[in-house]
Amino acid sequence: MEFLYKKDSETIFLTAVLLVAAVVTQDVSPDCASCIKVNATCYNVSYLFDMNATFRTHIVVHKMGILRSENVLFYSFEPEIADKEYYKVGFVNLDNPDVQGVISDEHIKVLNFGTFDIDQDNSIVYLGGYDGIFTYGNTKKLAPYSSRGDTILSLFYKGFVYFVKSDDNRIISKKGDQFNSVLDYVPIKNFVLTKYDVIVFLSNYGLFLHKKGETIWLSKNAFFRGLTIDLDDTVYAWWIDGLYRVVIEKNLAESSIVKVAHIPGIGALTFDNDNNIIFNLDKSVFKMTETNVTKC
Ligand SMILES: *[C@@H]1O[C@H](CO)[C@@H](O)[C@H](O)[C@H]1NC(C)=O
Ligand SMILES: *[C@@H]1O[C@H](CO)[C@@H](O)[C@H](O)[C@H]1NC(C)=O
Ligand SMILES: *[C@@H]1O[C@H](CO)[C@@H](O)[C@H](O)[C@H]1NC(C)=O
Ligand SMILES: *[C@@H]1O[C@H](CO)[C@@H](O)[C@H](O)[C@H]1NC(C)=O
């Protein structure tokens, strides 16, 4: 009996060694060659299409967003140097990428739309540029909305339009004819607002959180390229080397920013109607879908 027992325990030990070996081997040859890890989860990356706008030689896309009712991806980009505008907004239908173009209006002068956001309930795109804010709605025509003559640096929609002008430290909300100062702190390059009214913003000093009079300096990295929110209200930032998750805690001071995916050369990023990640590398657009694969 004693012998047998010993043998069994040896067998168990050997099995354990083999299991470890198997795990190590599978780590080398992953279950999904086209997957990458986003924190602990493997996402399958697939190429969708190329954006066919007339880009500058060095392709720069600043922002992406999806008009959810039509599944159309909008993106702000820098057009070729010969173009009289520095910034433009293009669009491409995710269901049918042949339907694509650039927002323009031959009757309106240089607009330099470098920022935009979308009122999903009413399917209205708000665009900000060198001559205030314009709308682009169901009629597919541009119409002046607000702040003519001002340069709009960043724009966000959450029930109302929130925006930042050049030479002004404030985030301003426009509710009907009323303009309110929502935050007055430092010059802001870019911002988003969560469901619970936390403002996440980027300035030349780095990345900050703000809620009810409290401001937290979360990162001194001044080179985050953009901010976005997924369908679950999680805020992400991205930088040249990949994707970062902003973990906002109830006690704002305990919040953190964590790199969750290594994607060198990432351009801009948004989330589609199924909360898949949509991003670009140069002019190519990719989709990243969550999988249940554990080794990648
Ligand atoms: C990463 O995944 C682990 C394990 O699921 C989780 O506990 C952690 O909160 C995640 N981190 C972030 C930043 O999402
Ligand atoms: C990843 O996507 C490819 C097609 O793009 C598919 O063939 C493959 O099965 C997917 N893998 C997983 C783990 O979902
Ligand atoms: C974009 O242009 C390339 C090259 O001309 C072409 O192959 C591709 O089909 C175009 N993509 C779309 C979505 O129209
Ligand atoms: C993973 O997902 C695939 C299809 O989405 C399913 O067939 C498979 O059973 C799942 N595997 C596990 C371990 O949940």
What is the CATH H-level superfamily? YVTN repeat-like/Quinoprotein amine dehydrogenase
CATH architecture: 7 Propeller
Question: Low-confidence parts lasting 5 or more residues at pLDDT below 50?
Answer: 1-28
Based on Cα principal axes, name the global outline: globular
Order of helices and strands: HEEEEEEEEEEEEEEEEEEEEEEEEE
Keywords:
five-stranded antiparallel β-sheet, binds 2-acetamido-2-deoxy-beta-D-glucopyranose, 296 residues, mainly beta, four-stranded antiparallel β-sheet, Methylamine Dehydrogenase, Chain H, globular, single chain, 1 helix
Q: What's the topology here?
A:
Layout: H1 2-28, E1 35-38, E2 41-50, E3 61-67, E4 72-77, E5 88-93, E6 100-102, E7 115-119, E8 124-129, E9 132-136, E10 142-146, E11 152-157, E12 161-165, E13 170-175, E14 178-184, E15 190-193, E16 199-203, E17 206-211, E18 214-219, E19 226-229, E20 235-239, E21 242-247, E22 256-262, E23 269-271, E24 277-281, E25 284-290
Antiparallel strand pairs: 1-2, 2-25, 3-4, 4-5, 5-6, 7-8, 8-9, 9-10, 11-12, 12-13, 13-14, 15-16, 16-17, 17-18, 19-20, 20-21, 21-22, 23-24, 24-25
The chain binds 2-acetamido-2-deoxy-beta-D-glucopyranose (NAG) (4 copies).
